[in-house]
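User: Hello, beginner here. Can you help me understand these amino acid letters and fold codes? It all follows right here:
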Amino acid sequence: MRIIGQILMWSGFLGGAFCAVLRTGPPEGAASDSGWSTIPWGWYLLSVGVGVIGVTLLRIAMVKDKQDDGMTEFEYSTVQRSLADVSAVVARLCSQAVSDPRIIVAAIDDECVEPLADFANSRQALVKRFGMTVYADVMTEFASAERFLNRAWSAAADGYVDEVEICLDRANSHLASTREIIGAADLQAG
């Protein structure tokens, strides 16, 4: 919409300017007292109308951008909150000795599934805020953390305590890397 608005605005401006300087001369048999009679008013008004439509489209695009910025901030806060929630759960699980693997399964099911989904649903805010490079770095680490968390869940469901601890530690490490990347990007953006 922004490009179309720019095209219409500049077309209207240039068309109106061209009409204003165009000297076609007075109609045959008419005396010309001023230069106003040489302006093709129909074309001039059409150009002004096209320019007004272009400006209107640009203003609509600007309002939409402001709304998108508000949504981006909301989504980014969701990303931060979700990452903090998952990180806290995984850190807590890493600090406890795994005596009953069912506790791990329940903790992941009850406390991690929703924040992981919220993070994934709001991840586009990272692109809008930081660009594709930071997004790719964050999602690489986050996806690895999620994968190890899923492996920890599977190992816990099967009763492999050693594997649970290894996978939780690796998930915790990837989540820490994710937080570091986002923190560094925040510092650079701020």
Summary: The mean pLDDT is 87. The first helix runs from residue 2 to 21. The helical segments are 2-21, 41-95, 101-122, 124-130, 132-158, 161-189. The CA atoms of residues 152 and 168 lie 6 Å apart.
